What does this fold into?
Amino acid sequence: MYRIEGMRETLHPHPSLPPSRGKGHLGRIGRMDKLGCLYGVGVGPGDPELMTLKAVRVLKASPIVFTPQAAGSKDSLALTVARNYIDETKQQLIYAEFVMGGTTDDVWSEAAERIADYLLNGEDVAFLTQGDPLLYGSFMYVMVKVQAAHPQMPIEVVPGVTSITASASRAKTPLVSHAERLAVLPAMYGIDDLRDVLARNDTVVLMKVNRKAMAAVSQLEADGELSRCVFARRATTPRERIEFSLREVAPEETDYFSMLILRGKKG
Amino acid sequence: MYRIEGMRETLHPHPSLPPSRGKGHLGRIGRMDKLGCLYGVGVGPGDPELMTLKAVRVLKASPIVFTPQAAGSKDSLALTVARNYIDETKQQLIYAEFVMGGTTDDVWSEAAERIADYLLNGEDVAFLTQGDPLLYGSFMYVMVKVQAAHPQMPIEVVPGVTSITASASRAKTPLVSHAERLAVLPAMYGIDDLRDVLARNDTVVLMKVNRKAMAAVSQLEADGELSRCVFARRATTPRERIEFSLREVAPEETDYFSMLILRGKKG
It folds into this structure.
């Protein structure tokens, strides 16, 4: 049982923790008399202007920047958002390549090991995450691995604007107010119980909507069981698409970054 | 069925919509040949550095700033966060005073009427909201009223970092990953079915935690039914308090801005 009280800023100055002497993952001795800090940086939903002031400051000050990148993709989405704040003549940019929707544990283990290496050498590392680092963000896998191997390592998480509130903002659609309940579920892992979830919550957000989920929700909409049905894809990016009925959305327009904001018809 | 495609920026330049000629709520004629834009500005969870770049830009450019304020309180929380970006020699600051947890519909109706008056005069209005404007934010009440009275009025919502991800970030506690489900419910409106909600979701966030909810969750924790129990109050503010067991939290330390992040023990 431990506590955190009051605000702590760990970038300037660094927490003065003892360096790891041969006990770190790689058995390395810190180059400087301090450890680096691992920053999980939420860069927000897509519009670079929706980065926080803190994300920008931390990113600019970090000598090492890790960015997740889907294998086979030319771009890292998080990097596209943050690109303007990275100076590759002064900062080292490292891609952690993963397979979208695939088994990625090895990727994050390798990234965590490389990151620990930099941290033990006293260098700060920023790990970019689209949206928020701890809400379906890849940072948490890396964070948990670094925490497990190096419990003493300074870690700071910079929260970001999520795609959920960004989608609602672009659609000007209230999510929840007052006594209402919100459920968030990743549709690609199954929504067989969607009717039940709609009945138990006021607003239901389906993330990672695939064609099967689109078909199921289209049926609910056609049956008149929804009082609200907002489709949002890549909100706040140049490829944004917002629709207020699934009748407007062809199946091939749905991708991994598609989302639905639903409300059922009550009573 | 309407759609929004591609990014739109409405602050510079203004959307050139026709002014309301006597059809507005107050029957006023626009002073200039355009309407103002209503901005719902999410200022984030409390740390001013967690404002987005866009929130700062919009706020600085808005001649009129509305801020909600609890009746009897000396400070507006949203205003405390945004204070550095408001110049009262150039911008008009207006307080919308409401009773915390009380019936506030009249307050928002009055605020919406005053706001519409400025908008019809061609002046942009920024309405501050702690966290995000559409997730338990007071902005949505105002937005809905302005939309109903003036469907043609330009409105833009600037999403903000929520207290949910901010609390998780300060506790370094993952919220949900991969196939996991998240439920968010305001505890002060009842959690009699909390065991059921915990069984149906991987992570449960209780907002607006009162003493009754604290007692109920303390009992669950004592019974060994929780695998995670994080108490977070006013995360990222100077009054932040984070605890990893309710045994550390006295009932009087709980307030309207207290939150719990819970995970049940699975079968």
About this structure: The domain at 163-264 of chain B is CATH 3.30.950.10 (Methyltransferase, Cobalt-precorrin-4 Transmethylase; Domain 2). The first helix of chain B runs from residue 53 to 61. Helices of chain B lie at 53-61, 77-82, 105-120, 139-149, 163-171, 194-200, 211-222.
